[in-house]
């Protein structure tokens, strides 16, 4: 099997700790054929033979075995896309119209050429990373929409439960971008309308969970199997647990009741071609089910002193 990693331009990536490059490099180190594909070279056609321009690459892991250095592209060539190719969809969110177009194109390509797509585009389209978590039995009480009247009803219902702080955030971004914490005494109507205008429609409102100050879990799953977990802790005096925003992390064992729920969800999503998942968990709830471009594989590997991209490579090679 040939593996093609469809990624953003290298200039946009933090190469040292990029999960996609970690997986590609692990496959290459096992003498498997692994190449990189960029947006500018991706196309589909119902008249042309599908030969995509892909790049060979060189790189190595640092002495710790997880972080990457000396990574660079080498020669490119046109690769025939067929049933012997797996394309790893690794374009970063936001899940916007651009992202949707690529999912449609990948879905068409899989039908046209019998190429394998990981995660499968129809599975990604079906499962919004936040809404999928809201529908679980254990969930964070949430509002999603652009209706001011309905938003006010939600706030009133939370006020009746003595909630004093809230989070407003976009439905389709990542890494803590656009997240804002507000007090019940703030002008919530204005803040809500400003966010709706900023993000062009429906946004999320939730009570602020104080548990976040003690950290949020990130758990990596592949083929419905838990690889490892970390806990992400915000900087002193802050509330964002995103490592990209400065949060710290350390190894942790996922509590049994949370693991059981993640196990069940990952098995269900596997039916839709979602093989690679990164769960975010806070308190007793799954808060996000990351399926677009699951990340932090390097950090989870580092914390556990185990290269989990090698385990993923085992699954990929054996499947």
Features:
single chain, 319 residues, alpha+beta, Rossmann fold, Dna Ligase, domain 1, D-amino Acid Aminotransferase, Chain A, domain 1, 3 domains, 5-stranded antiparallel sheet, 4-stranded parallel sheet, 9 helices, globular
Number of strands: 15
Cα-based radius of gyration, to the nearest Å: 20 Å
Query: Which stretches of 5+ consecutive residues score pLDDT under 50?
Result: none
Strand proportion: 25-35%
Q: What is the 3D shape?
A: globular
H and E string: EHEEEEHEHHEHEEHEEEEHEEHH
CATH architecture of the largest domain: 3-Layer(aba) Sandwich
Largest sheet: 5 strands, antiparallel
Number of helices: 9
Summed over residues and divided by their number, the pLDDT gives a mean of 93
Q: What is the helix content?
A: 25-40%
CATH topology assignment of the largest domain: Rossmann fold
Structural class comes to alpha+beta
**Broad CATH class of the largest domain:** Alpha Beta
How many independent structural domains?
3
Which strand order do you get reading across the main beta sheet? Answer: 13-12-11-14-15
Could you tell me how far the N terminus lies from the C terminus, measured between alpha carbons in angstroms? Answer: 10 Å
Commentary on this structure:
The protein folds into 3 domains: 2-121, Rossmann fold, CATH 3.40.50; 143-208, ATP-grasp fold, A domain (Dna Ligase, domain 1, 2-Layer Sandwich); 211-318, ATP-grasp fold, B domain (D-amino Acid Aminotransferase, Chain A, domain 1). β14 (276-282) and β15 (285-290) form a beta hairpin. The model has no long low-confidence stretch (mean pLDDT 93). It is of the alpha+beta class. α1 (19-29) packs across α9 (308-318). The protein has 9 helices and 15 strands. Strands 13-12-11-14-15 form a 5-stranded antiparallel sheet, sandwiched between helices. It has a 4-stranded parallel sheet with strand order 2-1-5-6, sandwiched between helices. The N and C termini lie close together (10 Å). 30% of the residues lie in helices and 30% in strands. The protein has helices at 19-29, 97-113, 121-126, 131-134, 148-159, 188-199, 256-270, 297-304, 308-318, and strands spanning 2-7, 34-38, 51-61, 68-80, 85-90, 116-118, 143-145, 165-170, 180-183, 203-207, 216-222, 225-233, 248-252, 276-282, 285-290.
